Amino acid sequence: MKRSLAGFTLLETLVALAILAIALSAAFRAVGATTQSVGELRDRTLADWIAQNRLAELRASGRFPPLGRNEGRETQARTEFRWREEVKGTPNPLFRRVDVTVTDGSGEHTLASLSGFAVRPLR
Q1: What domains can be seen in the chain, in order of their start residue?
Q2: C-alpha R_g of the chain
Q3: CA distances (Å), 89 to each of 51, 72, 92, 101, in order?
């Protein structure tokens, strides 16, 4: 009576390891992409807060902004951003349009842009 040996052949083991390697590399790639998109989303959220803060400061000051451009830097969550405000006239002289653009610290990539209006106080 002949007994057969239980177990996997070398070929079966190599195929299983190849499948495992492919699955693990795909999983690591997905984790890396998710981590990168979370960082970008964080930066865009912080940039949006900066744009909202610029418009809120303008409204809270109660002043009617002059036409032109203002630029500056702001740090949120230990990350530096650049902002640019462009104040433009409107057909109604009591209103001015304010466009705020926020970029990364190098100024290369626009992360957020927001528009609002400033109103001249009535006397």
Answers
A1: 10-119 (3.30.1300.30)
A2: 28
A3: 19, 21, 8, 17
Location of structure tokens 């495992």: 20
Short-list 52, 57, 46, CA closest to 80: 46
Q: Distance of CA 117 to CAs 21, 89, 94, 104, 121, Å? A: 56, 10, 10, 24, 13
| Backbone φ, ψ for residue 109 (5° rounding) | -115, 125
Per DSSP, what are the bridge partners of residue 95? 119
Q: Which of 30, 85, 13 is nearest to 52 (CA)?
A: 85
Query: 25-47, pLDDT tens digit by residue?
Result: 999 898 888 887 888 999 999 99
